[in-house]
Amino acid sequence: xxxxxxxxxxxxxxKTEIFGMPLPQLQxxxxxxxxxxxxxxxxxxxxxxxxxxxxxxxxxxxxxxxxLLQETFSVLPAEIHIVRKLDSADGLxxxxxxxxxxxxxxxxxxxxxxxxxxxxxxxxxxCDMHCAFCASxxxxxxxxxxxxxxxxxxxxxxxxLYPLDERVSRVVVMGSGEPMLNFDAVFxxxxxxxxxxxxxxxxxxMTVSTCGILPGIEKMKALGLPINLAVSLHAVRDELxxxxxxxxxxxxxxxxxxxxxxxxxxxxxxxxxEYILLADKNDSxxxxxxxxxxxxxxxxxxxxxxxxxxxxxxxxxxxxxxxxRFLSILQQRRIHATVRREMGADINAxxxxxxxxxxxxx
Length: 362
Ligand code: SF4
Description:
This protein is of the alpha/beta class. Helices cover 38% and strands 20% of the residues. The strands form three sheets. Strands 3-4-5-6-9-10-11-12-13-14 form a ten-stranded mixed sheet. The chain has a two-stranded parallel ribbon with strand order 1-2. Strands 7-8 form a two-stranded antiparallel sheet. The longest helix is centred in the middle third of the chain and has 15 residues, at 147-161. It is elongated.
């Protein structure tokens, strides 16, 4: 067996990532280095309670231990580069473009609500789903993010909030990527963030949004955690939905609604349907009435999202009267519906656009 010095002198030596590592595993890897068991708890505390990602600042560890740790382990949030940060004029929303150690980029958004801070995280670098109104699939490799990469998105903001004695209390998996295609890492990260000695975020304050990957909804049901489910619906006419969201060919939306309703029944959580409003595409009275037919008597609410115009794709935002009319048809038929509050409209570049521009530059 190699000594630790021999391992460190080996040019092929790769540092072990400890961010996102469960405490028992951390205890094991530290014991292998000859460190006492209680050191694992101290390091865990620095990482997840004090948001300190640099071993040199972990002041209750010995000097020799700190250098050993520094040489042996990496801590992901310290290795992520914030390429761009856009703050809304009202100061309530921040969007960051993050460069991961392998050069891939992802977007993460922090929103300050009256009930606390919520973060919208990405689950993949890029996306293969090719929804017509989304830039996430443009340019750059698509790969799954790891547990550490998903949890780190929350902790980069937790580190900024720490001096204010605040922390993130809600997580929405609605950034780039289809979470159900990276199921184990997404739910692994949520379970990790839920732990009281990590971020202590309740499952009821977590939402996973899918474009309609049926097996993923079924797996989520089998997991039995009260995590909220959101479904990106965006159209209730088969041809139009396939045009907007090609995933509809493999998983037709009526089947997705049935699976989501099944999830609502088993989890006791209401399902949210996201419906992006595109002028003269899916915003007619008939579309609203069809939506009512599909969702009547379901444990569901509808989140209407007036589109950020993408003129080159022919997507325009409906006028205010049309939006109100669509909303009132739903509400009159007792479908719980709201129009998404426009947070940080001045930085609200459509999902994935920052990343697409970054990948193109590279
Ligand atoms: S909307 Fe979501 S599922 Fe569709 S391409 Fe964009 S990131 Fe992927």
